[in-house]
Design goal:
This protein is mainly β and about 500 residues long. It contains one helix and 36 strands. The longest helix is centred in the first third of the chain and has 11 residues, at about 35-45.
Length: about 500
């Protein structure tokens, strides 16, 4: 590393100049007569060559063909980082350090020149910073607390503690209704929205089992293309079961149980193979980790088949990051080292093809999400996880279609992050991260609209929060999203509204 207090300054060397000597001796006699005057006149009228100041052979006199000097002072060399004006009138880059011996000290300029790989963070790309002249991974950013938002909350109780719930228009009136999966009683409880965010409990479906079941997962979508939103429910049991609830004018009919891989924990309704018809995908804790049941558009589905060659883990995300209208998949994969997830591309048959692997070595386990965080019309990728008793969110920026930055930006939170949703919540444009914490609260990381987060909100609820018990949508029709959250083992459902 060069010594920042020393530099070699060309101006510090002696400058050699021309020394003019005058001849010694008696002066020429002065004749004031006419003849002398005439002789002098002839001498001075001999032409321009008689003027020594215009003699082109004089080496001390620049000719009209020589270029003008590039500079006369330091100020003329501002286009260089540590520029100075040499004795030849040429702007040069200092071979020493800014502010060193004999150098002008430019404002906000710290480095020596030349010799560094970078001189500012902007030269290093997303997720990297210029550290001592070299590009290195940006340090993790501890997020401060946000200013308390203006809003209010409301609560109501279910008949039993839910393991999952969703928001969807279940009665066709364009309002978001509420459905909760209750494993203790083996039923689904429905709440229809009155348009103002108040939910009237309408009934329960008890055909899943005779008594308690394993943990239930829940998804909503039109399974039979009749325009009504149907439901898919899985039971986390050794003999995995999928139930399809077909909606006809807000009246649900439960289909025959369908087998899945053991211990399913997530379910999605989406067109996985790109044929324009809804399919059902389940994520299980046993092989095949991703199971696909292909739909025919009329409510009939194929037996389950594997959806990926690479096994995946739970807390996956299904969405269209390739922007081709066909859902893709972001999912953690098993690894002895932990902290690895993969982007899979959908639409090329029942199998989703692996596209890119991401490494998050700080994460023993994680949830993965995707959204356009910076309004660049590309999907950015976010992994969230617990970290050293608190939490961390890691962001990879979308750079081109189906491509992401090599670098990542990390944010440290005061609560563990288990997953949830990326959605617009506060007044600042840009998706926010709403995450469960496994504590009696959930966290909202405020997005900055530039691909990152600025601060963290903490909202208290009853019971430890879970990713499956967080839903986001405009339930009161005021044009702003609300957050519906519940706690594991608690009957209470909380709604957070912002003004």
């Amino acid at each position: 590393m060069p010594d920042l207090n020393k530099r070699i300054d060309p101006l510090g060397f002696p400058i050699l100049g021309l020394i003019t000597f005058a001849a010694c001796g008696p002066g020429a006699p002065q004749d004031s007569g006419t003849e002398g005057t005439s002789a002098g006149t002839e001498s001075t009228s001999a032409g321009p060559t008689s003027d020594p100041t215009s003699d082109p052979t004089d080496p001390t006199r620049p000719t009209t063909t020589e270029p003008m000097p590039e500079c006369e002072s330091y100020d003329d060399c501002d286009h260089l980082y540590c520029g100075y004006c040499s004795s030849e009138g040429v702007c040069e880059e200092s071979v020493g350090c800014c502010g060193g011996y004999g150098a002008q000290i430019p404002a906000s300029k710290w480095r020596c020149s030349p010799g560094y790989d970078c001189y500012s963070d902007e030269e290093c790309g997303f997720g990297y910073a210029c550290i001592s002249g070299e590009c290195g991974e940006s340090p993790a950013i501890p997020l401060p607390g946000c200013d308390p938002p203006d809003g209010f909350g409301s609560e109501w109780n279910l008949s039993n503690a839910p393991s999952a719930f969703i928001l969807a228009d279940l009665d066709g009136d364009t309002d978001l209704d509420f459905a909760a999966a209750l494993p203790a009683s083996g039923m689904i409880e429905i709440g229809f929205n009155d348009g103002n965010g108040n939910f009237n409990l309408a009934g329960a479906f008890v055909n899943f089992a005779e008594g308690p079941t394993g943990e239930l997962a829940l998804a909503a979508g039109d399974l039979d293309n009749d325009g009504d939103i149907d439901l898919a429910v899985t039971r986390r049991e050794a003999n995995g079961v999928l139930h399809l609830l077909f909606n006809d004018g807000a009246v649900f009919t439960v289909g025959e149980p369908r087998p899945t891989a053991p211990f399913p924990v997530q379910v999605f309704i989406s067109d996985i193979n790109g044929d324009g018809l809804p399919d059902v995908a389940t994520v299980s804790e046993a092989e095949p980790r991703l199971g696909i049941q292909l739909g025919d558009g009329n409510g009939q589905f194929s037996p389950e088949q594997p959806g990926t060659v690479v096994p995946i883990e739970t807390r996956a995300w299904v969405g269209d990051f390739s922007l081709d209208g066909v859902p893709d998949l972001l999912a953690p994969i098993p690894s002895d080292a932990g902290g690895i997830f993969v982007a899979f591309v959908g639409g090329k048959g029942p199998f989703l093809e692996p596209l890119r692997q991401f490494n998050a070595p700080e994460a023993a386990s994680m949830a993965v999400l995707g959204a356009d965080l910076d309004f660049q019309m590309l999907t950015d990728v976010v992994a969230v996880h617990a970290h050293e008793g608190a939490g961390m969110a890691q962001v990879w920026a979308g750079t081109e279609l189906n491509q992401w930055s090599n670098g990542r930006q990390r944010y440290i939170t005061t609560r563990p992050l288990l997953g949830g949703a990326l959605a617009e919540f506060d007044a600042v444009p840009g998706p926010d991260l709403i995450s469960a914490t496994d504590q009696s609260n959930f966290v909202v990381l405020a997005g900055d609209g530039k691909g990152g987060f600025t601060c963290e909100h903490i909202f208290d609820i009853v019971g430890p929060s879970s990713p499956a018990l967080i839903a986001v949508g405009d339930v009161d029709n005021d044009g702003r999203n609300d957050i519906v959250a519940g706690g594991s083992g608690s009957l209470t459902v909380s709604i957070t509204h912002l003004f």
